[in-house]
Automatic annotation (TrEMBL):
GO terms for cellular component: outer membrane-bounded periplasmic space. This is Peptide ABC transporter substrate-binding protein. Coiled coil: none annotated. The keyword Cytoplasm does not apply. GO terms for biological process: microcin transport; peptide transport. InterPro entries: SBP_5, SBP_5_dom. The keyword Zinc does not apply. Pfam families: SBP_bac_5.
Length: 645
């Protein structure tokens, strides 16, 4: 790659790591491992979208994970953990600004390779690849996808489909009796791909580096740590700032870097593109990079043995249409893209024997109501809105694979966390019940069919959604129609761009909004992000996590305090029975108070072909439920693949 491109990317990486403000220390006590944080102004360029899907994986978590710890930083969190890249119209998509600079920085084409040794992957169709292999950042690019899992590894991996923890660079862990210390026992005989041994010193160095350079600490995990000790090369003990059983999730999923390499970096490590022979412990090594293609080769000294997949070709695609067309034409083995029955028919008819899809519940779509604004602070109004929505109709729009949500907001794979009294609970669509709630709240229905308060003001509001997210825009239109039938004068506010939408939901400048929830190994994580009062903020200030409704003591009084206490009860113990009691208490508040209104369940997207590889997740092999775009877990799928017979 020409030097000019590299230098511009290095500068860009530094800009992307810029904080909007210093982390709030109190909030950081509940740090989250996030794929992306950063200033709205510096991190991302958001262009037109055909669906929300381009943002689905940007968090975890998020895809995937706990909430943002920063008061003034907007976390672009995914609706689900996975992309639904612009299904229904052309899109510009979400591009790291630097990727635009790279388009003309050099191309390469794959050499001829046996398809029984090479896996062809498109993690997400988000434009040209950016030359960023820094594992501390996930810019939702193929390079970051490879850095986080193929090159660098974590101590413990979390299967978000099952909530199970799996040993990785550590073979075991244990908490102290008071849950204030977490000790990892490292896997022996692990080497970095340059031959140097992996030891506890590397683990300590990684967290010390993050503390010294806060831009690397995207999830604020170092705020959980009081001290780190390394009794021997295979043991590392974290003394926590307080009892915290969730530290396993956050600390265990931090990518570990080699001290002997990263200690020699001159300048800011947050600006380190790491594109020259990255040194990791992972199963693959970087062979080459271009804006169109990244090639990885198997690491011959990998501690886990030699995978059947010897080479991985990671492609780029400008949009969903291109990605799906290429998949149908057999150019990829694995894709993670939003899907419709139309695509399904085209894909499977091309090769009915081998072309497969498998979609798995991911997270819950919510209707968020701004609780700082009347009448949403009235639970009877919230109940009326919920009762007026016919959730069975929503998947008939464009969210074809979404199913109606559970009243607790808990997704089907976490059903063991649902209290016995709610196991069989469902939402009941009832216009008459909705109207009864409104009358109980003091509203009267006029001759025009709408309800009015005692001052003569009609009960009406708008629901915001980016107009180009056509799946959610269609859902909102269905909801608006239902509400009007019940006598609530609702409208859809289709916003021209996603930035305006994000600014509104994070800043509180809206009435109602369709939005996502975060992922985690148990319901604690999405509940915490959505309902912790620490994540709330007064109007005009940015909330954290997904507390877009601003559930706090101002809007919910003692109920908010009760939720905080239940979250703390969960966090401070490792006793699953005590944790379940805490979650059940939050469920009761969710069902009875509707701080947010559950709508549908999103799915993770997985499209693959069995023509060359077997061992993919499906109904007969559901224990590896990972879409392409979920890191570091995607590597688990790759390591389980075998040549097709």
């Amino acid at each position: 790659m020409p030097g000019i491109c590299r230098s511009r990317l290095a500068a860009l990486a530094g800009a992307a790591a810029t904080r909007a403000s210093a982390p709030n220390q109190e909030d950081r006590q509940e740090a989250a491992r996030l794929p992306i944080h950063g200033s709205r102004q510096t991190v991302l360029l958001v262009a037109g979208h055909a669906s929300f899907a381009l943002f689905q994986r940007i968090h975890y978590y998020i895809s995937r994970s706990g909430g943002s710890m920063y008061d003034d930083i907007t976390r672009l969190t995914p609706r689900s953990a996975g992309p639904r890249w612009g299904i229904f119209s052309p899109m510009l998509g979400l591009l790291l600004v630097g990727a635009l600079l790279l388009t003309a920085c050099g191309k390469s084409t794959p050499s001829t390779a046996s398809k029984t040794e090479t896996l062809r992957v498109l993690p997400a169709p988000n434009g040209p690849n950016a030359d960023l292999f820094n594992p501390f950042f996930n810019y939702n690019t193929p390079a970051a996808w490879g850095a986080q899992g193929l090159l660098y590894e974590v101590l413990y991996s979390t299967d978000l489909s099952t909530g199970e923890y799996h040993p990785w660079l550590a073979t075991s862990y244990n908490f102290s009796s008071d849950n204030t210390q977490l000790t990892f026992h490292l896997r022996p005989n692990v080497k970095w791909n340059d031959g140097q041994p992996f030891t506890s010193a590397d683990v300590k160095f990684t967290f010390d580096l993050m503390k010294a350079h806060p831009a690397l600490d995207q999830g604020g995990v170092t705020a959980l740590i009081r001290d780190i000790t390394t009794p021997d090369d295979q043991t590392v003990t974290f003394t926590l700032t307080g009892p915290n059983s969730t530290a396993l999730f956050y600390l265990g999923q931090t990518y570990i870097v080699p001290q002997h390499v990263w200690s020699t970096i001159s300048g800011d490590p947050a600006k380190f593109t790491n594109d020259k022979n990255p040194v990791g412990t992972g199963p693959y090594k970087l062979r080459s990079f271009s804006a169109d293609l990244i090639i990885y080769d198997v690491n011959p000294s990998y501690w886990g043995g030699q995978p059947a997949v010897k080479h991985i070709y990671v492609y780029s695609a400008k949009d969903n249409t291109t990605a799906i067309t290429n998949m149908i034409q057999g150019k990829y083995d694995w894709l993670g893209s939003a899907w419709t029955p139309q695509f399904d028919q085209q894909f499977k008819s091309k090769d009915p024997q081998h072309n497969k899809t498998w979609f798995f519940p991911s997270n819950t779509v919510m209707l968020y109501l701004n609780l700082y604004k009347a009448p949403f602070n009235n639970v009877l109004v919230r109940k009326a809105i919920s009762a007026a929505i016919n959730r069975d109709n929503l998947p008939q729009g464009v969210a074809y694979y979404a199913k109606p949500a559970h009243p607790t907001g808990i997704i089907p794979p976490r059903k063991e966390w649902i209290a016995p009294e709610y196991q069989n609970a469902t939402f009941q669509y009832s216009v008459s019940q909705a109207q009864a709630y409104l009358k109980q709240a003091g509203y009267t229905q006029h001759s025009d069919g709408y309800f009015y308060d005692s001052s003569g003001k009609v009960l009406g509001f708008s629901i915001i959604v980016p107009s180009s997210w056509s799946d959610w825009a269609q859902d909102v239109q269905f909801i608006v129609n239902d509400l009007n039938k019940a006598g609530i004068k609702a409208t859809m506010n289709g916003m021209a761009d996603a930035n305006t939408y994000f600014s509104a939901i994070y800043g509180g400048n809206y009435e109602a909004a369709i939005g996502w929830t975060d992922k985690g190994p148990t319901p604690y994580y999405p509940y915490r992000d959505m309902l912790s009062s620490k994540n709330s903020a007064p109007p005009g200030k940015s909330v954290s996590g997904t507390n877009f409704g601003r559930w706090d003591t101002h809007t919910a009084g003692s109920l908010a305090t009760q939720v905080d206490q239940l979250l703390n009860q969960y966090r401070t113990t490792t006793d699953i029975n005590v944790q379940k009691q805490a979650i059940w208490g939050i469920e009761k508040i969710m069902v009875e108070q509707l701080p947010a209104i559950p709508l549908t369940v999103n799915v993770d997207w997985d499209e693959h072909t069995t023509k060359y590889w077997s061992g993919w997740p499906d109904d007969s092999n559901p224990n590896i439920v990972v879409p392409t775009y979920q890191v570091p877990d995607a590597v688990s799928v790759i390591l389980h693949l075998k040549p097709a017979t």
